[in-house]
Specification:
By secondary structure, the chain is α+β, with helices and mostly antiparallel strands. It has one domain: q2cbj1_9rhob like domain (Jelly Rolls), CATH 2.60.120. It starts with 6 loop residues before the first helix and ends in a 32-residue tail after the last strand. The mean pLDDT is about 95.
Length: about 250
């Protein structure tokens, strides 16, 4: 099992805005976490259905098993090496595409959704807890799109929303990344990415850990209405994110 990313992986991430790291956790651990993820999904109540995916936010604060994965030092070490700056946890969430879900997650960037001020770098670790071939909802990335800055948040259900904002991306190559259980993709918060529908008989289960610059401060102007959001109790502009709820990485 890799304890750190290679120089080649760092170079690929910085060039393309994403990188695939196989086997970042073992298959037995992936199966254990997948079982815990489905249990966490089933415990969730009073959440409006979303045709795109089932989401469970902040599982590290609710489930001891999944907390292990969110705080896994292997993920933290890799994220820090890729970002090149000290990081803290922003949030985690489960993203589960139910069987025979015909709704893709359309191309979007993550950062426009997050209330981050003066962030030098933020990125996500997308850990596959089951095998995710293309038919089960794997990720597709637009290499180099992390250099496209200053866009408003996008609608993940509108196939053309991002492309209307940044029409140059229409002509960029796309890279689809099928993954095995235990694999991880890291992607920069500005990398345009999508996920295909789940056309299989089994759920697609991903555990996503989001990291931000340890010095990031709170920006209430970016609060998306109706969108689940991790934020400090004091939402004053420029407020640091407190260590208890947004722990710095060791």
């Amino acid at each position: 099992m890799p304890r750190s990313v290679t120089e080649e992986q760092k170079a690929a991430y910085r060039r393309d805005g994403f990188v695939h790291i196989p086997g970042i956790i073992g298959k037995d651990d992936a199966a254990r976490y997948a079982k815990a993820a489905l249990a966490a999904r089933d415990r969730q109540k009073d959440v409006p259905p979303d045709p795109t995916f089932t989401r469970v936010m902040q599982v590290w604060q609710q489930d001891e098993i999944l907390r292990e994965l969110t705080l896994d030092p292997v993920l933290a070490t890799a994220a820090t090496a890729l970002a090149g700056v000290p990081l803290r946890l922003y949030h985690d969430h489960l993203l589960i595409k139910e069987p025979h879900n015909d709704a893709p997650t359309e191309f979007h960037q993550d950062l426009p959704f997050w209330p981050h001020l003066d962030s030098r770098h933020s990125l996500s670790a997308w850990v596959a807890l089951v095998d995710v071939p293309a038919r089960r909802g794997c990720m597709t990335f637009i290499p180099g799109s992390h250099r496209t800055e200053g866009l408003h948040r996008q609608d993940v259900r509108d196939a053309d929303n991002l492309m209307r904002m940044a029409p140059e991306l229409v002509w960029k190559p796309r890279v689809t990344v099928p993954v095995r259980a235990g694999d991880c993709t890291f992607h920069h918060s500005l990398t345009a990415h999508s996920a295909s529908p789940n056309l299989t008989d089994d759920p697609r289960i991903a555990h996503v850990v989001v990291y931000m610059d340890a010095e990031t401060r709170y920006d209430p102007r970016k609060r998306p209405g109706g969108e689940p959001l991790a934020e400090p109790a004091d939402t004053t502009t420029g407020r640091p994110f407190p260590d208890d709820d947004f722990p710095p990485l060791p």
